[in-house]
TrEMBL record:
PANTHER family: GH3 DOMAIN-CONTAINING PROTEIN. One of its GO terms (cellular component) is cytoplasm. GO terms for molecular function: acid-amino acid ligase activity. This is GH3 auxin-responsive promoter. Residues 388-494 form the GH3 C-terminal domain. The lineage of its organism: Bacteria, Pseudomonadati, Bacteroidota, Flavobacteriia, Flavobacteriales. InterPro entries: GH3 (IPR004993), GH3_C (IPR055378), GH3_M (IPR055377). It comes from the Bacteria. Transmembrane segments: none annotated. Residues 297-362 form the GH3 middle domain. Pfam families: GH3, GH3_C, GH3_M.
Length: 506
């Protein structure tokens, strides 16, 4: 009998039952008040007169009217640069203890996003809430005393004069609670290795010594790690090494495009749980098995607003026009893409995180990520978000019985006529022309705007297939391997020219 596992499972079940239900909308009102109250004496709070906003009868409305939207460059150029020059108490009390380095999927230059102690506590709190939510999933008691393998960025953070820097997964792992360290794999020593290949090699060598129940990380890099473990240990699937593996916590990108190739590495089905941890905070997690949508963390350190993702509100560079309306949880609707806006305990204010979402359940505040504001394929009016591109790729996998591990796309001009030019990462032998035709037919049926675009400016679809390793090599060439690195799904023409040149050299 698994005594420890049964005890832990019982404690989680009881904690979930004793946790009172709360209203996401009311939670958000309280979060905003706390944010304004704590930051009212900062330079930012005094400039925008947080005291007056707090005293108004309509705090949420007043907040959205008085404070403009900020993307990273704007808030960094206007406010955060002062932190780098040694000033304090700028957008949040005191100075941040960490900076999360993030280049996202758009470039080589790292953003330096403040991460305060309050944010660390917010992330821990959200993590505990996610653990409690495991009571909703049908997991055996044996699961709850197994190791959890977290494959993120190196925890060997960069030391500066008064703070540490690194990617958010490395910062989070650096701050894991003491009670969790016994479950955490690969352990502090291996987690500090900066070189991704060396770290995975160490994991492969140690794998047989661990009893892993859950793994966590970005799908593409988790797949590579699992492949390495399987190959090194000369087994057929990962369950021959880790027979008690029950859960994969996915994050960073939608899991859908990786589902088929990921499942091929398993000996049996496991539970997939989506999470939404960004450099700016722990935003959402899947809280119940009936859906693959994620529940916003509405009672933590983040206040959310939602701008309808409509052409009249979006500039060409993905930023928002100044007059774009922002909705609260009380105002949002189903089946509408929204640009996600956050204000946080790290001193980000009305911050455009760059993701678009839609609500699947408003009462529960459950969402799905639909894409990126800068990666919305609308050059010729086709209006394709990343989730629609993912659906098309999944259709190809099912139609041709193939695995497509990565992809990227560009609306590219050929002799002044636009074509959607796709690259698929697959090891399967399939005719590119057949993929192109099937892809085009599917998108015409699934998306009205695409169908209209194909009758006008969009002349057709071109497809090329390459081995999946080229995508990983591209990421390594542009940034680095592993960690938070994600493949850009949609490229502009200049970046796509670089991509094609890179592919040609391989």
């Amino acid at each position: 009998m698994n005594i420890i596992g049964n005890i832990i499972k019982s404690v989680i079940d009881i904690t979930e039952k004793l946790t009172p239900e709360s209203s996401p909308s009311e939670n958000q009102k309280e979060v905003l008040k706390k944010l304004l109250s704590k930051a009212k004496d900062t330079a930012f709070g005094q400039f925008y007169n947080f005291e007056a906003i707090m005293e108004s009868d309509t705090v949420q409305k007043n907040f959205s009217e008085k404070i403009p939207y900020f993307d990273y460059n704007e808030i960094n150029d206007e406010w955060w640069y002062k932190l780098h020059e040694g000033e304090t108490n700028i957008t949040w009390p005191d100075n941040p203890d960490y900076y999360a380095l993030s280049s996202g999927t758009t470039g080589k230059t790292s953003k330096r996003i403040p991460v305060t102690e309050d944010m660390i506590e917010s992330i821990k709190s959200a993590g505990i809430a996610q653990i409690i939510a495991l009571s909703h999933f049908d997991l055996p008691a044996t699961f709850f005393d197994k190791g959890i393998l977290m494959l993120g960025s190196s925890t060997d953070l960069i030391e500066k004069k008064d703070h540490l820097e690194g990617e958010i997964s490395g910062i989070s792992a650096h701050n894991i609670p003491s009670w969790f360290r016994g479950y955490y794999k690969p352990g502090e020593k291996i987690a500090q290795i900066d070189d991704w290949d060396q770290r995975v090699e160490k994991i492969a060598k140690k794998a047989k010594e661990w009893d892993i129940g859950a793994i966590s990380g970005i799908p593409s890099w988790i797949e590579l790690m699992l492949n390495e473990v399987i190959t090194y240990n000369k087994v057929k699937n990962i369950h021959e090494i880790w027979p008690n593996l029950e859960v994969y916590t996915s994050g960073g990108v939608a899991f859908g495009p990786y589902e088929k190739s990921f499942n091929a590495l398993l000996g049996r089905p496991i539970t997939i749980i989506d999470t939404y941890l960004a450099s700016e905070g722990f935003i959402a997690f899947q809280a119940r098995p009936e859906t693959d949508a994620m529940q916003l963390v509405t009672d933590g350190g983040i206040y959310f607003e939602f701008v309808p993702f409509k052409p009249e509100y979006i500039n060409q560079d993905g930023s928002l026009v100044a007059h774009a309306p922002a909705f609260t949880l009380d105002d949002v609707e189903l089946n509408q893409d929204y640009v996600l806006i956050i204000s946080t305990v790290s001193g980000t204010w009305r911050y455009i995180i760059g993701d678009t979402i839609e609500f699947t359940d408003i009462e529960r505040a459950e969402i799905k990520i639909t894409g990126r504001t800068k990666f919305f394929l609308n050059t010729v009016g086709s209006q394709l978000s990343v989730n629609k591109l993912d659906d098309a790729v999944k259709h190809l996998e099912e139609r041709f019985n193939i695995k497509i591990k990565e992809y990227t796309i560009c609306a590219k001009r050929y002799d002044e006529e636009f074509y959607h030019s796709w690259y698929f990462g697959t090891e399967d032998d399939v005719e590119a022309s057949s993929l192109a035709q099937t892809l085009d037919d599917f998108l015409k049926q699934a998306n009205k705007n695409y169908r209209v675009a194909r009758s006008k400016a969009l002349k057709g679809v071109k497809v090329k297939t390459v081995i999946p390793a080229i995508f990983h090599d591209w990421n390594a060439f542009n940034k680095k391997k592993g960690g938070q690195v994600k493949m850009e799904r949609v490229m502009n023409e200049d970046k796509f020219t670089e991509w094609e040149a890179f592919v040609e050299k391989k």
